[in-house]
Amino acid sequence: MATDKYSNIGKDGIVKEGIFNRFPILEPVTVGDNYWKNPRHSKLMIIGESNYFPDNVDSVFKDPVAWYQGEITKPLIPKEMEDNVSNYKAGYAPFDRLRDSMKAVLKTEFNYIYEEAIYYNYFLRPAIGGVSFRKYCKQIDREVAGVALCEILEIVAPNIVIFASKYAHDEFTKYIKSSKYNDTRIEFVYHPSNRFRRWESNPNSKQKFERLLKDYWLRNP
User: Fold this and answer.
1) Which of 119, 125, 162, 215 holds its CA 20 to 30 A away from the CA of 2?
2) Which residues pair with 218 in a beta bridge?
3) Per residue in 154-187, pLDDT tens?
């Protein structure tokens, strides 16, 4: 089951039992209380695109209706895939790049991005292999993702949201279709993996991420 603060998200909607009652392992992740209480910075939420399953995983994830609404006769997320889809990933190289930029801007040491930010993946259904979720996205995925994030933002109230996926960012901004989150800066950078973009040199990667941190996250340089 979901933790209490997320247990009612999306309830009686597309996912009748509540999105994070059905997928508790996909909840946003933070560690400790520095996300809320560190006087050096405001509240930062980092959002990825989606998790990935290998093509041969024994799961209904390729069928979006079964994934969100079907009777659960076997685990939606098999035990052997739990570490892969958990929003907490220790020693994950792309997150280390984000952490290193955060450490450089904050001028302090910490081990994981979760100690100073909250992390979440936008789409709740895994993509296949390492391919962008763009290839598999259906309207039901857009609706569930939009509902979930809108309610999460109401609960965790970040000052700045940085999507590490232009596609997820664009889908969410199309979903909200308004200036509902005027008090929250919503931006994107490319995913911090050299498989997709050159993180060190692309102007929408490391340079932009660190500029956003300095402009909207850092309080006491």
Assistant:
1) 162
2) 41
3) 999 999 999 999 999 999 999 987 556 667 899 9
